[in-house]
């Protein structure tokens, strides 16, 4: 893997129900460019629509997850005083995938790279991972929803600290404050993340995981009575569904479950789209 002209900026591999998406500009720390942004969005949408994929792992080639915006591109923006969007697709795209997305964070995870990691459902970091919001030290604001995401993960005080200071946060602290779910030895990172994703792919209902993901994200902006009422309605549908019957039968028979995949072509569903949320249908 490398940054040669014939190398794609993003790699996609599918095996045993897990899609592994690798940011592939290792010579530049997987710095974010328009080409990488488009390729990442295409890979994630492709994995979302592929019924063979039940979980996604996102990682970076080489020694970094992503150092953030490409230095050359940021330098040009600083001179011009404005930037065009790097991709037509929104930067919250992982949140809209009905499939679990696990970030395997290796090395540096800065700026837009950190924002993308926060949009994943689970973050597993190597013990040499390091994080920085970076924005305040470049004269920028909290980008692309990070001021919404970060306080919900680490609390307002920690979020203010990380955003205002843009200081470096090492893996141990990241685990302690809840920025990542767990920290593992660097040599084991991809294997640990893939093993976790494979457990989801083989043991959990794709339909149930999609519904739970939408519930958790949507309920961040609603009240408890609304959340409770929505769960009651969804639960009645689940009780009548094939997945519940298979879950019970496999549990009683002490065998692996055989849950069906999401329908082929099933695409992104923004969790704040109420109609799509309740029906599971794409807007």
In this structure, how is the largest beta sheet organized?
A: 6 strands, mixed
Query: Can you identify the CATH superfamily of the largest domain?
Result: 2-enoyl-CoA Hydratase, Chain A, domain 1
The chain-level structural class is: alpha/beta
The string of secondary-structure elements, in order, is: EEHEEHHEEHEEHHEHEHHHHH
User: How is the CATH topology of the largest domain named?
Assistant: 2-enoyl-CoA Hydratase, Chain A, domain 1
Helical amount among residues, as a percent range? 40-55%
Shape: globular
Query: In CATH's first tier, which class of the largest domain applies?
Result: Alpha Beta
**What is the CATH architecture annotation of the largest domain?**
Alpha-Beta Complex
Rg (C-alpha, Å)? 19 Å
What portion of the residues fall into strands of 2 or more residues? 5-15%
Gap between N and C termini: 37 Å
Kindly give the count of domains: 2
Mean pLDDT: 87
Alpha plus pi helix count: 12
Low-confidence stretches: 74-81, 277-283
Strand order of the largest sheet: 1-2-3-5-7-10
Strand tally: 10
Characterise this structure.
This is Enoyl-CoA hydratase. Its EC number is 4.2.1.17. InterPro entries: ClpP/crotonase-like_dom_sf, Enoyl-CoA_hydra/iso, Enoyl-CoA_hydra_C. With 283 residues, this protein is α/β, with parallel strands linked by helices. It has two domains: 10-200, 2-enoyl-CoA Hydratase, Chain A, domain 1 (Alpha-Beta Complex); 205-279, Lyase 2-enoyl-coa Hydratase, Chain  A, domain 2, CATH 1.10.12. Helix content is 45%, strand content 15%. It contains twelve helices and ten strands. The strands form two sheets. A six-stranded mixed sheet has the order 1-2-3-5-7-10, with helices on both faces. A four-stranded mixed sheet has the order 4-6-8-9. Helix 5 packs across helix 6 and helix 9 (206-219) runs antiparallel to helix 10. It is globular, with a radius of gyration of 19 Å.
């Amino acid at each position: 893997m490398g940054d040669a002209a014939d190398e794609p900026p993003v790699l996609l591999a599918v095996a045993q129900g897990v899609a592994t998406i690798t940011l592939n500009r290792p010579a530049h720390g997987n710095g974010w460019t328009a080409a990488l942004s488009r390729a990442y969005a295409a890979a994630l949408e492709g994995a979302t629509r592929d019924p063979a994929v039940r979980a996604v792992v996102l990682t970076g080639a080489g020694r970094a997850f992503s150092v953030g915006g490409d230095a050359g591109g940021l330098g040009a923006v600083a001179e011009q005083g404005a930037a065009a969007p790097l991709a037509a697709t929104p930067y919250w795209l992982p949140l809209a995938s009905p499939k679990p997305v696990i970030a395997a964070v290796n090395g540096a995870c800065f700026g837009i790279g950190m924002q993308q990691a926060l949009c994943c459902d689970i973050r597993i970091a190597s013990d040499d991972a390091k994080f920085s919001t970076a924005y305040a030290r470049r004269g920028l604001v909290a980008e692309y929803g990070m001021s919404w995401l970060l306080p919900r993960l680490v609390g307002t005080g920690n979020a203010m600290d990380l955003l205002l200071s843009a200081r470096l946060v090492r893996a141990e602290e990241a685990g302690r404050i809840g920025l990542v779910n767990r920290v593992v030895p660097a040599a084991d990172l991809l294997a640990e993340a893939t093993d976790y994703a494979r457990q989801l792919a083989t043991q959990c209902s794709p339909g149930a995981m999609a519904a739970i993901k939408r519930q958790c994200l949507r309920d961040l902006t609603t009240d408890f009575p609304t959340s409770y009422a929505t769960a009651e309605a969804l639960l009645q549908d689940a009780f009548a569904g094939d997945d519940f019957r298979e879950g019970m039968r496999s549990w009683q028979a002490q065998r692996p479950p055989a849950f069906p995949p999401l329908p082929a072509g099933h695409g992104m569903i923004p969790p704040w789209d109420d109609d799509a949320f309740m029906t599971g249908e794409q807007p």
